[in-house]
Amino acid sequence: MTIDKLSKLMTDDAILAELGFRMARCRIDRQLTQAALAHQAGVSKRTVERIEAGASAQMVSVIRICRVLDLVAGIDQWIPQPDPRPMDLVARKGRTRQRASSSRKTQGADEPWTWDP
Question: In the prediction, which pLDDT does 86 show?
């Protein structure tokens, strides 16, 4: 199975399976066995088997395997660095945001305020 491009329409399982397939191809192209890759990455052979089979794994294990397969540079494309918006920089005086904000609702905006003793 090979897919040219991952899509948001794909299921999580389909994406995991495709990523596992691609990692297996990279490993084979580099003439590494699963055991050798696991040893070099500092993970268990079972972890490599699970990732290549499309099962979920801890992010640190995926990063270690990507490092051995020389795929770390590709991780930068997964989640690109966001460009700062000029007006946001002015409003925050150069500080970066630490949290996402949610919309605030005013309680009973349609009703006049009353005292409840």
Answer: 74
